[in-house]
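Blinded run. Sample ID left blank on purpose so nobody reads anything into the name before looking at the predicted structure. Input follows.
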Amino acid sequence: MSLQIAQAAVNDANIHFDRLYSYCVPPRLAGRLWPGSMVLVPFGRGNKPRMAVVLDVQEVEDAPDNLKTLLDAAPEEARLTPDLMELVRFLKERTFCTWFEAVKAVIPYGAQYRPAVENGRPVMQSRLTRSTERLYTLTGELPAAPKPGPRQLAAVQALRQGPLTARQLDEVGISKSTLDSLCKKGVLTACEQDKEIDLFAAIPFDPRPITLSPEQQAVFWELLPKLEDAQPHAALLHGVTGSGKTMVFLKLIERTLELGRKALVLVPEISLTPQMIRRLKSTFGSRLAVQHSALNNTERLLQWRRIQQGNADIVVGTRSAVFAPLQNIGLIIMDEEQEHTYQSESAPRYDAHDIAKKRAAMENSLLLFASATPLTETYHAAQCGRLQLVRLQHRYGGKPLPQVDFVDMRAELAAGNPREVSGRLAQELQKNLDHGEQSILLLNRRGYRTVAMCTACGHVLKCPHCSVPLVYHKPQQALMCHHCGHTVQPAPTLCPDCGGKLAYSGFGTQRVEEELSRLLPAARILRMDQDSTTKKNAHETMLAQFARHDYDILLGTQMVAKGLDFEKVSLVGVLGIDSLLFGQGFRAYESVFSLVTQVIGRGGRADIPGRALIQTTVPDHPVLQLAAAQDYEAFYREEITFRKFGLYPPFCAFCVVGFVGDKEQEVLTAAVRFGQLLGETAAKTPQMPLRILGPAPMNIVMLNSKYRYKLTLKCRNDAQFRAVMRQTLDAYDKEKLPAKASVILDFNSDGDI
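Blinded prediction complete.
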């Protein structure tokens, strides 16, 4: 009699023992396991139950005597489909994560399982009790006797139109006792189904013909053949801010649905999803699902199951939505593709660009990147012919780009204005208030004050767990660490080292909000940053309030800089941009150019002409001048020359190998040794291009009480290089170095970590 052997990868492994382990499949589970099944296995010397994912199932005649037996398996519907398993393998191969880290990225928390005990036996338990509701269906006729009551008659009459849920029947006055009585009589049958949560009930279905401008129509016709031929294609839609890229998206989605296929729409920020959802729901109706981190676990699970069961034609969401279990994808749109939020900063450290390309190849889809300021690598690929390049060079309706002026903050200080809001910006804001127009102000720094320094000894108050200054938050009257959350409350007034007086300097969104309130007492100011958007649906609520003109000024961090479209916004102000301009990563100039270009583009999108003011101490800086002119082509020429001269992407791959541990000297020693091992391994393949830089401390050398060093590798990220990295990791493990410092590989970092 043959037996089944399952090859499984366990949860909570690290990269050094993340391999496949063999288990016997007990007879009660025979025929119920496939690659992608979630199982419970005994692991380690104590046979502690641990979650695992099956990668292979084999039939054998005899199993080794010492082979352990699987404990439990999840239902078949919880199994990862072959295409999701392909994405798991892709993540494992490309990001050097563990098998189970990849699994957790692909499926939401609510769809995952955990070990539990029932009746003394180890079993799997869903992490989230699935939310269901009772559905009633009319299956018989009411008997004449005993005479049915009015509620029973009403229930039967209501259900003649089709099945209804208990909640729907309760809303028309039909109680559970009435329904239970009818079920006993055989008139109704009841079953449990996933609870329907209509996240978009307030958005009316209001389909209107999608009318494109001649330029938009030309772009649509250029892209249409790639959409219709059922082959994998990639294209870049490069359009100036306000050119109406979204209208082209809608037309392409409309055609995708006509072809019987489905669409996946990715946006970089949660703040951008409400506007995109509104446009999609009003145009295409309720077969829309959403995936992003602002949903609670139940909502995410129910949305995920809707997609999995084929009840959604369009999925919209942030980075994680790239893993949505959507079948028959014809179109993938990545809006504002230049944004760093498409890159995961925790394991698996993936870039949604790469996953979208993989899915487009698997599904024979059109992958459309879109931006006014595309990544240098993306635009270079388009220039080289690896992507189709289509352009929208004019604003929709022929509206002009905003007029941009600079305010030299050195001159402001010399004139006796120490405030963060210049006199010119205050005048322009007042002018907007007088005319009933709105303004957006960008300051990419939250909090009230950014540094607390002793006036006597110069000591700066830093987080005891992270090597960064604490930030003063006035509403809480506290100093807070923006990395680990450490809080000092109340905020001190004296230096802990010498007892001298502390001076608080720098400024954040809270400070500027207070300053604006003093300068413009009549202004209604809405602050939108990480501190003010913690409540559920905060982004959607705030943006709706601003759209209704409940506020005059929207002050915020990067979340207000891109994708937003408000008719009454005629003024945009940029504050505190210099700190980003002199960042250390090789993308610093690209990030500033993109951010300034995008936020300037929020103004003048309707009938009111737009204008923008950039406050800076370096008004002649070429990056700011090019951003003010909205001249992406000129910026690209400068940037690609710098990238080629310095050997940065797209002319090489860029990999940061991080080392994290408790003792600084041990972490440094481990980093040095890894570099030596990598050099020795790479020397065996001398034709492989590789530069090893470092080790060096990371920009934040201590985070959460852990010391951090890095090696920077300039390489070619191909199968040969990844094989060398795996050999090096194995050698590092054999020397017991992971006990000194764990290793993190990041192929998406710009080095500014």
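Unblinding after everyone has recorded impressions. The longest strand covers residues 690-703.
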